[in-house]
User: What shape does this take?
Amino acid sequence: MAGQLGVAVVGCGYWGMNYVRVYSELPDARVVCVCDQRQERLEEVSRRFPGVHVTSQLDSALQQDGVEAVIVCTNATTHYAVTHRALMAGKHVLVEKPLTTASVEAERLIELAASKSAVLMVGHTFVYNAGIHKMKEYVEAGRDQVYYLYSSRTNLGPIRTDVNALWDLAPHDVAIFNYLLDSTPRWVSAVGAKVLRNCREDVGFISLGYKGDRMDIVGHIHVSWADPHKARELVVVGSDRRVVFDDLNGIEQVRVFEKGVKATPAEPVTYGEYRLQIRDGDIVSPRLEVSEPLKNQCRHFLECITSGAVPITSARDGEQVVKVLEAIDRSLTLRGAPVEVMEDISNEHWKQSA
Ligand SMILES: NC(=O)c1ccc[n+]([C@@H]2O[C@H](COP(=O)([O-])OP(=O)(O)OC[C@H]3O[C@@H](n4cnc5c(N)ncnc54)[C@H](O)[C@@H]3O)[C@@H](O)[C@H]2O)c1
Assistant: This one.
């Protein structure tokens, strides 16, 4: 056990159990404790992972001997309170997405983590996905101009009782778009529907505006808990190619269509006239490194703790995504009117009061 970092997993529902499995498999870590409010989940942990201490009390988990790092995998609206307590207890924390459900809370956690010299990381799992890495290679490779990108994340549920489908599903896509474009959106526009007649949106259509180097880039995200067709697809359309990521396609997760259209200045005609140049080429499925994204993410968290490096998915990145979701909320209430994504509120506040 020497050299192994002690981990506690707080929240062991559908997704949390994956963290228990992954950390049990990593040689540099040891799952010391699992905390969940549901007794049946603790029984399941004891059955599958004998030797792991189980408790329904967060403080008891935080006080267990050997716990240095905490994974927060509870329902979204509890992320802030649980993470705050873990940081106060001097632990490094990896929080599932969304980091919090309010950006002021995210800011408080970032400050608290800094004051404790603790690593605070958000679980934007797709940033650790080999297919998304391949997409980024194409986006960054040379002369290709990204025109726009769009994604679909639909299924029948699972329906959450604390956040709507946009807060539940869109953090993945916003985090991927931000990562691919190395940027954050300036504005959003969102409409939603409550088709299942519960009190929160179960369907959403979100547009996002990014500032690009050469031209502004529009993104679009469709999420739904009410669509019998399960989709986990993201498409980047560029001047030279179209790149598709399909998380449900186990054989060809990324497909590249070497086709595109671009406007080139026509010769020898008058200023401002353009000619459309069409490119038609192969359809390629690039070879991808075989790795489990969650395991890559968990390993990276350990590396950041031992090296002191800032995580690839830092709490700041998590906060940016939360700000986008807050703007989406504002646009929803305005039935799709474009809303600016708030710049750093604390900075604005500081500037006004200075
Ligand atoms: N990164 C991904 O791909 C991915 C996938 C699924 C879920 N998630 C995220 O993981 C989190 C959990 O999702 P899930 O699908 O496992 O939900 P879930 O409802 O199945 O599990 C949540 C668990 O947390 C427990 N819990 C809640 N508050 C608690 C507290 N204060 N102390 C201890 N236990 C508590 C509940 O009893 C429950 O068992 C969410 O934030 C979700 O957004 C991420």
